[in-house]
Design goal:
Two copies of one chain form a homodimer. Chain A is mainly beta. Helix content of chain A is 13%, strand content 41%. Chain A contains three helices and twelve strands; from the N terminus they run αββββββββββββαα. In chain A, strands 4-5-6-12-7-10 form a six-stranded antiparallel beta sheet, with no helix packed on it. The longest helix of chain A is centred in the C-terminal third of the chain and has 8 residues. The interface between A and B is large, with 43 and 43 residues. Strand 1 of chain A pairs antiparallel with strand 10 of chain B.
Chain lengths: 158, 158
């Protein structure tokens, strides 16, 4: 044993956005949800902390689930760029932009460039489960041509 | 008005680690505390979030206050590198390493390279005030030659 547990937990070095001792996990375990080419690393989660910090990485063409929930997301783009949908707004996002996803707001992240999109996401440790759009809600969302293009993987240029 | 308030708050673009609409503040307002060449931006702080995310940036040679407190720090190096003290451990840190500062643990960050050191720090929104070392505690800390060298601005090479 060259390094006690306490030491390991105090400092985690990284190589290419993979952190020592942090498991790279599937994005989520929810068979209902549609997503593509995305991984999750939980960087900080501790009983004494009221927030959690997670890192999500999308390969080019990847996207997160289109969902909403009561809890907020506080996002910082850590690597690369892409687009996101927040409510009815499609936004071009780049490292190190900040994105706030307010409560009960539809959102999705997409790696629309020829590079990975990696982002940090701070959430409350105690939080509700995501909701997926009903067919009616999806129809309402896609009635906006920009939102429809985004969800179809064709975000605006520029 | 080209952009409603809601829109501004949802997406903050950055230029050189300065975020739109985020005030660059003095590191702290505490006349007791020793620190140098460090600024603070509060990236996320919201009544519905139980955690806060702050960005601190130290110019070369800068350092944060040597302090401890009941609340934990969850740190991710966002820019550059340097050294930190956590407990009795002096560590070389680089983007994007993770550092956990456990409860009631002396700590300090130093920009020991010829580049700024910028880091994110997640904390509980509700937290106690930092404590500064007494002369006795400082004497105990500096009885370790590596810690003394660090606090004197001379961290180990390599």
């Amino acid at each position: 044993m060259t390094m006690p547990d306490r030491e390991q937990a105090t400092h985690r070095k990284a190589q290419g956005y993979r952190w020592e001792g942090v498991e790279e996990r599937p994005y989520k375990d929810d068979a209902r949800a549609l997503f593509k080419s995305i991984t999750r690393q939980v960087l900080f989660s501790h009983p004494d902390m009221h927030g959690e910090l997670r890192y999500f990485e999308l390969a080019p063409g990847g996207f997160s689930t289109l969902e909403r929930h009561e809890h907020m997301h506080a996002v910082l783009i850590l690597r690369g760029g892409g687009h996101c949908l927040v409510g009815e707004q499609v936004k071009r996002i780049d490292q190190p932009d900040l994105i706030t996803v307010p409560a009960v707001t539809w959102h999705q992240f997409r790696a629309t460039a020829a590079e990975p999109l990696g982002f940090l996401c701070m959430v409350n440790a105690a939080r509700d489960r995501p909701q997926l759009p009903s067919p009616d809600e999806l129809a309402r969302l896609t009635s906006d041509v920009k939102v429809a293009a985004f969800l179809n993987g064709e975000p605006p240029r520029g």
